[in-house]
């Protein structure tokens, strides 16, 4: 080979990275993402092929066996090793076996906040072969009974501080033959039994694997509640197979055993339970568990515990950015933030203020069959179109008519794919690799999420209910939600549930609930257009009492609009689009407007002064 040829080859090799950077700037990001995807499939495939059946619990047993004394969970001033957690969960499991007639396969409802006992109890129930329904500890009364009924639980285990909420619905539970255990040392309420004292007296020996021998990959592992697009909360069925696959999320984002995870999201949420807790079982990382998110103590906790990985929902990062600036803002070891729902401007502000933290934004739905990961760090995007990802999980954005609330169809009755750069409804084909299990005991809502005849007659897709957009660089951006759900304070709020509660107020005839945007805030806050019963006047105090007694804070409509009648479509559906656009400004809305003042425990007339105070953030929402 002559000098000229050698020089040409060397020059080509030297210029190749530059050519890639100019013409294919995300080549290496895409390449390593593909390698990661292949690694996940190989690992998942190997585990699926193991005999006997290998489940999330078995990965936990591996960690206990290999690293019994490794710190697993830190809560306040307590530290629990893998072995500690194993023994505590064994004691709870043995107590339940002895004092109840619970059988493998029976569903148990867990009604508890973020505390170690939540994790120990879930492990105990998994050892007993029982699926667990994770109840939102904010719900009460009708909503609690509804959620409980969705999963047909045979047993309810509740935190001591939630005993009063359980007592409110105890007669209904007793009618269904449900047993109730309270996580306390003593309980004098007839129909309830204490569990802590029984667990303390129980043996800490292992539970026989025979309790789990009837389980299959299709068996339910947990039920996680989601508002979806309509109605009361629905119990999304998370099978053993799906939970095993989801266990790899943290590891696939580079989390290792040496990492320390800060978990302050609710454990009843998919983000907190699946990614934070179950993901840490896979990686063997230490969990720093906190009862609730606190913006003022967030970085103090991170520094104290040397946290390296944090989780977020969009609101979390904004709350952190809204705290007073300190010289110590960059004094931490956090290297990775993983979550979803952060606005682009908040994302930039977060990085500018708190330093070079890798933000891994993702898109997923608890019950969905497709997800995206922004593996490049492109600010504002939830993911990136990848050829192989799309082959494995076929999805598309289709044109959507917001007024009719349905996909646009052509003359053949098939859906129309949205053009690049155009907002469309995300749909994903239902396949063996990407199944849609649906909701427990809710065939109607399950069917509503199935979309047929999308691109050819007879095909079947999952309707995400979300509007997304793909730009010309193939990045994917979340745009909005469709249907009757809005998101506030990181929680999905079903408008029909709120409307039902409002309709129980003595003076309210009918309510149309929707979410409206507030400047400087993520998501949409609750508002309702209501009509008053004939011959009655609007009662702001009793209406306030109604919503505060029956709805968690994030679901309460902060603004009310009193109307003579509610506008309907030709098919008798409530019109929301115009109401959403007009919002809560007294300069725009001529109808009487009210604002929920929680200090005064009443709805008070909405004024320009209140509106301006909300806009300037002098009034906190």
Automatic annotation (TrEMBL):
It is a multi-pass membrane protein. GO terms for cellular component: endoplasmic reticulum membrane; plasma membrane. The keyword rRNA-binding does not apply. Coiled coil: none annotated. Residues 62-383 form the AMP-dependent synthetase/ligase domain. Its EC number is 6.2.1.3. Keywords: Cell membrane, Fatty acid metabolism, Ligase, Lipid metabolism, Lipid transport, Membrane, Nucleotide-binding, Transmembrane, Transmembrane helix, Transport. It is found in: Cell membrane. Pfam families: AMP-binding (PF00501), AMP-binding_C (PF13193). This is long-chain-fatty-acid--CoA ligase. It comes from Albula goreensis.
